[in-house]
Amino acid sequence: MALRFLGTTSEHGNCPTLYEIEETGDLVIQGYLLTDPKHLAQLRDVKESEAFVVVPRELLTRYAPKE
């Protein structure tokens, strides 16, 4: 499956960055791992295969598909 780069709000190749899986339209988000134990404890229905990243709101409002 091909990833399409949608945009980034960072400079010099750092994250966060937003991509789209072209075949499905699903989004892939590159960001810093959420590591705060207080925040992690509040997540629901977490599967072992899941990870959580912190994403600045600006990244999504600027680059996420509107449709």
Supply database-style keywords:
67 residues; alpha+beta; three-stranded antiparallel sheet; 2 helices; globular
- What structural class do the secondary elements suggest? alpha+beta
Distance between the termini: 21 Å
| Oligomeric form | single chain
| Helical fraction | 10-25%
In N-to-C order, the SSE pattern is: EEEEHEH
Radius of gyration: 13 Å
Overall outline = globular
Number of helices: 2
Number of strands: 5
Beta strand %: 25-35%
Low-pLDDT segments = none
* Spatial ordering of strands, largest sheet: 1-2-3
Mean of the pLDDT scores? 91
Biggest sheet features? 3 strands, antiparallel
Notes on the protein architecture:
It is a single chain. The chain is an alpha+beta fold and 67 residues long. The protein has helices at residues 37-40, 57-63; strands spanning 3-8, 17-21, 27-30, 32-33, 53-54. A 3-stranded antiparallel sheet has the order 1-2-3. A hairpin with a 5-residue loop joins strand 2 (17-21) and strand 3 (27-30). The protein is globular and about 30 Å long. The protein starts with a strand and ends with a helix.
Task: Furnish the topology, listing elements before pairings.
Layout: E1 3-8, E2 17-21, E3 27-30, E4 32-33, H1 37-40, E5 53-54, H2 57-63
Antiparallel strand pairs: 1-2, 2-3, 4-5
Describe the structure concisely for a colleague.
The chain is of the alpha+beta class. It is 16% helix and 28% strand.
